[in-house]
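Problem statement: downstream parser choked on a complex file, so we are re-checking the raw output for the 2-aminohexanedioic acid run. The parser issue turned out to be on our end (a line-ending mismatch), but while we're here, posting the original submission so the record is complete.
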Amino acid sequence: MSMKVLERLGLDRHPRVVTGAGLKPGTPGQVVVTNPANGEAIAGIRLDDAAAYEKVIAESQEAFKRWREVPAPVRGQVVRAIGDEFRKHKEALGALVTLEVGKILQEGLGEVQETIDIADYAVGLSRTLSGPVLASERAKHRLYEQWLPLGLVGVISAFNFPNAVWAWNSMLAAVCGDVTIWKPSLLAPLTAIASNEIAERVASSMGHRGVFQLIIGTDQEVGERLVADRRVPLISATGSCRMGKRVGEIVARRLGRTLLELGGNNAVIVHKDADIDLAAKSILFAAVGTAGQRCTTTRRLIAHESVVEELTKRLVNAYKQISIGDPLSEKTLVGPLITPAAVEGYFTAIRRAKEEGGTVLIGGERAAGMSKGNYVMPAIVRAPGSNVLPIAMEETFAPILYVFSYRTLEEALALHNSVEQGLSSAIFTDSVRTSEAFLATSGSGSDCGLAYVNLGTSGAEIGGAFGGEKDTGGGRESGSDSWKAYMRRQTVAINYGSELALAQGIRFGE
Ligand code: UN1
């Protein structure tokens, strides 16, 4: 099965991919990709070293010099062709995502669709990149802002969105005139090789070689080098808060720019007047989808005391029906976790939750009947009466939903905002007053970058800016004006008269 998926994308014949008899785990300079659904080795990938890194940088610099001269709408046409190529390969690439990281096929396909969508978005953007013309205080002067290509953009991506998050960055960066250097997670290098090759192949065939670069290596060998490299003005990193803090520190030391999209500890508030049916369905997808391995996964449910019992009962029932298993099978809703270490993380969190007084209502064990693969049963944990459950303050990348109850909306908001992360948030209510309190223009409601009403915390559309506050890192990717992160702003003043006119009315030597 796995060979077929690789064949469809030409990965079986790829020079840096080792399969079959040649695949020997433990070979130095190689990483082995393991299928999380059954623990079998899929392929070995040759890793890049420092010399390969230098080559990529040199090629990127050359490519940038050429690419920035291409008019943005023409760059958009290249991105349009790339999007079309992703359309052709959607099925194969979706299956590869599923094979490599274990998300169910529907979600693998959805992820590639997200790439297609952002490519479309970037095409439109390529004709609308613009800055304001401002009123000058001086006669015969023009004042405006223009946006210029930034240069080399380092993209560090996580395993859980091995295709789309790169696309959010690289498609925008491409129309902005930048060259992307992608350092994917070592848990998902196959998707990265296939995706990058699609982009690079299309761009090269249109005469633009080197705009999409890939570097696959360890943090020590290439990650640290990339982050510290002054030749790379922007580092866009997705991953844990711990990783992001380190990246942020190193890049700040060289006064470079970062775009950080880090952990979330997202909550859904369900108010007393909510549509419980809608809430239950939405929370189910947001809590167990992608086996709880999205940065936007719902990890905390904060329900009004009048609805908490009913809602939890419905969720527990729904959890009982979830089919867990082979992510390639159409029946499956929950696939495996990425690694055995992630399974350990799940068990550690469950143990701590119990020690801290939480009650496990469902889950807390391996998925029944699955002897191979990293399968766990999604869990719901009820917080103790005190509502204090320290483990729920942390992001555990696994399907565990902690349930809290509240009496007043103020209490709910305080609990909601009490975590260190600030990515995604949601409220279920049919009352305008309640939803507006959550979205208050004073900022006293949700403290997150994403705030939803009557929908779950995951599954953002690409058109909005995506990212979050506090330990989530503050970056914004994808839609809206996120493109500005990939360009440098230049304020221009032109004197088209023949008089020297100084700003602030200063007279000098007259
Ligand atoms: C992530 O988990 O890093 O909103 C990104 C969502 C997806 C993106 C998640 N569109 O859930």
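For whoever reads this later: The chain has a mean pLDDT of 97.
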